[in-house]
Design brief:
Blueprint: E1 4-8, H1 12-24, E2 28-32, H2 35-44, E3 49-53, H3 61-70, E4 79-83, H4 88-97, E5 101-104, H5 109-123, E6 131-134, E7 137-140, E8 145-148, E9 151-153, H6 157-167, H7 176-184, H8 193-206, E10 215-218, E11 222-225, H9 227-231
Parallel strand pairs: 1-2, 1-3, 3-4, 4-5
Antiparallel strand pairs: 6-7, 7-8, 8-9, 10-11
């Protein structure tokens, strides 16, 4: 069964962005735009995690979080709070109300997805999503295997990490420096041209003649996983 995430956020563009990236991770995602609607929804069934905006119409995120912690059914449900408030006192208030983690807008989507994964790993280690799917490509984090159209691909460890990193945020363009930090780590000192070499190796492993290339080169910027490919069936 997929891991279920409820987004409670009244900014529709942000909701769509979060839904797209979380579904790309293999999660089942629902969303509501009002705090009172979320409270009603959460009385019907309890998701595995809630992403909750601080400021909401109908019922504030802080008050909803307080009520959730008062109910036995939801007292241990992971809650990740989103807010434009960055002051330390407000962060402390959010955590004191019962939020498990706190992200200040604007935020990095890969960072938020990583925080979601960490919360789920702590709360329900058996439920963490291990599969990334996009188009006809499937990446299994647990077995370290990648398939395209049912054919197993043989990737080196670096190419696997590179593909995993790009697939987590389809459409987002990463510079070579960002890819070095995200895939190799900030403490590794290697030339940015190394990224080009490994992207070339990844493409060679992914693509057969006449197959669409899921890796997009953005001249002067870097690379991304093609969001149009990710939406293909």
């Amino acid at each position: 069964m997929p891991t279920n995430i409820l987004i409670v956020e009244d900014e529709e563009p942000l909701t769509l962005l979060l839904r797209y990236n979380l579904e790309s991770e293999g999660y089942a995602v629902e969303s509501v735009a009002r705090g009172d609607e979320a409270e009603t929804r959460l009385r019907e069934s309890v998701p595995d995690l809630v992403i909750l905006d601080w400021m909401l119409p109908g019922l504030s995120g802080i008050e909803l979080c307080r009520r959730l912690r008062a109910r036995p059914e939801t007292e241990r449900m992971p809650v990740l709070m989103l807010t434009a408030r960055g002051e330390e006192a407000e962060r402390v208030r959010g955590l004191a109300t019962g939020a498990d983690d706190y992200v200040v807008k604007p935020f990095s989507v890969p960072e938020l997805v990583a925080r979601v994964r960490a919360l789920l790993r702590r709360a329900k280690p058996d439920h963490i999503s291990t599969l990334l799917r996009a188009g006809d490509i499937e990446l299994d984090r647990e077995t370290k295997r990648v398939h395209r159209g049912g054919r197993e691909l043989h990737l080196g460890p670096t190419e696997f990490r590179l593909l995993e990193f790009l697939m987590q945020s389809p459409g987002r363009v990463y510079s070579r420096e960002q890819l070095l930090d995200g895939v190799w780590g900030q403490d590794v000192y290697i030339d940015e041209r190394t990224v080009d070499v490994h992207v070339g190796r990844l493409r060679k492993a992914l693509n057969r003649p006449r197959q669409p290339d899921p890796i997009r080169t953005v001249r002067g910027s870097g690379y991304s996983f093609n969001e149009m490919f990710a939406r293909a069936h």
